[in-house]
Amino acid sequence: MLDVSMTYADELRLAMDKAELSVSDLARAAGVSPQAVSQWLSGTTNPQMARHKAISDIIARRIAERSVETTITSTRLNDYRPEADRAAECLPINSLNTSASAGGGRLPEAAFLGSPRYFERSFIEQDLRARPGDLLVVEIEGQSMEPLMRHGDLALVDQRKLNVAMEGIFVLFDGDGVVCKWVEPCRTHDVPMLRISSENSRFPPYEVEADRCQIVGRVVWFARRL
User: Fold this and answer.
1) Within a domain: residue 212?
2) pTM of the entire structure?
3) Range of the domain at 158
4) Which residue among 17, 26, 72, 153 is least packed, with the fewest CB closer than 10 Å?
5) What are 131-160's pLDDT values in tens digits?
6) Please, which residues have CB within 8 angstroms of residue 103's CB and are 6 or more apart in sequence?
7) Within a domain: 2
8) Total tally of structural domains belonging to the chain
C-alpha cells in the first residue's frame, strides 16, 4: 500500500534503494534515458501509466532476484553470523549519478541519488586511509576512457584529492555534465584553464575555464564486471 504522504519520487527512490537499482540500471531495464529517470526522482515529471506499470514490474522482479541471490550466497558460505556483525565489516559509500547535472557551473545535490555500495572496512580505512564520507562510487558511462576504463566499470573517487596539478583521472562537472577524464591545468592562457582529455583517441581533448568546473575528486580505484 502506498503512503499517501509520500510523492511518487519518494516512493520510487525508496523502491530503487530496496532493489539496489541505480539510475543507469533502471534506465536500461525500462528502455529510457538516465535523464528521464533523474527527472522522475527529482519530481520534475512522472512516467505515463503504462511506463509506471513496467517500472513497478522491473523493481519487483529485481527485489525477488536479490532475495534469491542473498539466500544462495548465505547458504553457500554457511554464514549464520548476526546481521549486525556482518554489517560491521562493511562500510556504505554513496554513489554519484553521473547523468544528473545542471548548468551554471555547479553539481546539484540531486546528483547524489544512487544507492550506496558496500566495501570492506579494512579496504576503506587501511588501504585507502579514508572514511566513507571522503569517497564516492561512480559508474563509468560511455567509451571515452577505453580501453583503460570501460562502460559499466565502477570507480572510487576520493573527494579529498582535488589538486589537478598532480596528473591523474578525475571526476568533475565541466559546466555541461559530469565526466570522468584525465585533467591537467593549462598555463598558456590569461585566465586559468583546464585541459580535459580522454583515453580513447576518438574523443578529442578540450579546454574549459577552471571557474566553470567543479572537481569532485580523483579516481583512486576501479573495478570491472566479468
Assistant:
1) yes
2) 0.58
3) 85-223
4) 72
5) 998 999 988 888 999 999 998 888 999 999
6) 175, 176
7) no
8) 2
